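Newbie here. two chains, one complex. Structure please?
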Amino acid sequence: MPDSALLVEHITKRFSGHDAVRDLSLSVPRGTVYGLLGPNGAGKTTTIRMVLDILAPDEGRILILGRANTDDAVRQRVGYLPEERGLYKKMQVRRMLRFLAELKGVPGREADRRISRWLERFGLIENGRDWGRARVDELSRGMQQKVQFIGALLHEPELVILDEPFSGLDPINAQALKDTVVDLRREGRTVVFSTHLMDNAERLCDSICIIARGERQLEGELATVKAQHGGRHVALELASGDAARAVAMLHDASVVRTLDDSNRSFELELAPGADPQALLRRILDAGARVERFEMVRPSLHRIFLDVVGATDVEAGMSGHG
Amino acid sequence: MGKLLTVLRREYTERVRSRWFLISTALGPVFFAAIGVLPLVLASRTRPSPDLSHIVVLDATGTDLGRRVAGELAGGIAAPESQAIVRAVTPDALARAESTATHDVMAGESGPLGYLVLDSATLAGTAARYAGRNASSLIDVKRIEDAVRQSVLALRLEGEGLEPRRIKALTDFQLDMRAERLTTRGREAGGLASALFAYLLAFLLYTMIVIYGQQILRGVMEEKTTRVAEVIVSSVSTDTLLTGKVVGVGAASLTQMLLWTAGALAMLELRRPILARFGIPNPTVPLPHISAAVAVVLVLFFVLGFILYAGLFAAVGATVSNEQDAQQASLPVMLLLILAIIFVQPILLEPTGTLARVMSWLPFSAPILMPLRMTIIQVGWGEILATLAGVAFGCAATVWLGARIYRVGLLMYGKRPTLRELGRWVRQA
């Protein structure tokens, strides 16, 4: 049994003149949660479309569960949630889901059973109201997103690929999604998702890959990545309104090398040779009330900014992610 | 195969279940009766120009032919004010008189409708000339021609010594011309009934291709704009999706036509007792005889024609992302269809002419015009099969082209592609 659920080898995709993806290689271990991270326009969606054989790479090859991704049978074992959600608006929810399940080879009756189970699990059957009997366009946006997510999972895929699954989700739905991802992993399935929200990636991913400008910048287990990305980092939180008192010394380059300023909370990397105790004392002396001062591993957010370069995040194009 | 069936079933059932399908299936016959029969009824009721007496007759024959023609045109009414103005001229003065008359007619509404020239050639029975604002009205010209013919005839018979009253009695009669269609199978329904049927058939084919072709366009556009396409093409190829769509929608349209046909036949049967209740005898409806082979060919023409246009409509749907663009981009396809339907009338009038032949051979108009010709005249099997092959070839071409544009366009969002970009899509797909 191959140990990679997904193996991408040196793929390149060109669109009229520019390289959307250049010589990209990935390896997703089985049974893990894998994050494909990158700013908008980095080539995430293009990569995912190539994995699903919606687009063909100009160079390179892709293996899913050990077999070429052009093999129809192996793609039946993949579940896909595209970035742009879409359902037939006029179709009844249950018939829509059944259609998606049948496309993946699930027989009708079995599909119906699974649909009921999932609808209940996501609260789409409640208080005697079965939203499955409603038409898609009668559902709220959040409900439609759940339906789409169910559609990607009905055939119990071994590999689940989610493109920007958290975009547009409210906190409750986002939590439901996270819970499901955790459940899927427990069941031994592999989940690959792309995102530019580092918070979710940091909590969910076993491994990550950061891509930018169509190229891989970094790949590996999250713990390893963090360890390699050494440096001495401090998580600092100040009482409300006290930030102004500490700002001057936080911008002192002899003490602080990089600073991620989120108003009340800061993530900073100490300059070489700087003493964290001295820094804490100076902040207290300035009259700021410290609520948290902790030596930490760098956050994924920090690593992402370092790797991609803050300017690139700003300049990220919308559209193909 | 399983996936194709899944796509096909969805396309079919979702359409057949739709409210639109149910309503149009129920009301279709009414609609077709209205648009198919009303124009014919109205046309047959339309009277020619009410006042043909408002013309000038330039009589250079030196006889009273002009006066006779004027009387004939007035339908025998002798009152001078309701008769055409007759100007007796000498042959030498005819040119002058004609230019004056031309000037008067061109003056518009206040002047006469037109002028008729009678000269020695008319007396000899070879020629007469008419010029006027209504010269394009075939019925008007025919009436004038009849009046001249009748008057020349009367003049000649009087010359032979016959009494005017006697002539009138002998020549004045209405002939009711009945036409029956005779084919190798024998005698068939009346010519008018078969023309009516042919007209309805052509119109039905046209309407069905337009309506269901547009449904394909809209279906593709929906998948593209709602991004459903992306989920589906991650499980099935675009070719399978397109095939399932075209076959599913086509099957829905065939279902509707089948229901309509059944409904029409049932109505014919039901009409007898209903009419009998009102004491009206059931008029026999002369249905043209359609053999099984012809029926198969008719269905084949529809199926192939539908696929031919479906390929084009799908391609259009894949290039647009909103309703307005869809309207614009589908115009070229619609023009091809409209071109076909424009020729229905001329072909009905002259089904054996060159125009009829050529138009019924061209793949884009054959699916509508060949069935039309087949119903009014007998077309040889060789010609029918060759035309079918031509349409099948056209089908393959548009489906090939459509599938390529569809494959690329389905996942392209944003602005409409230019023609050059379309060319690139076709090459790179």
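Moderator note: DSSP finds twelve helices and 16 strands in chain A. Residues 86-152 of chain A form one domain. Thread marked as resolved.
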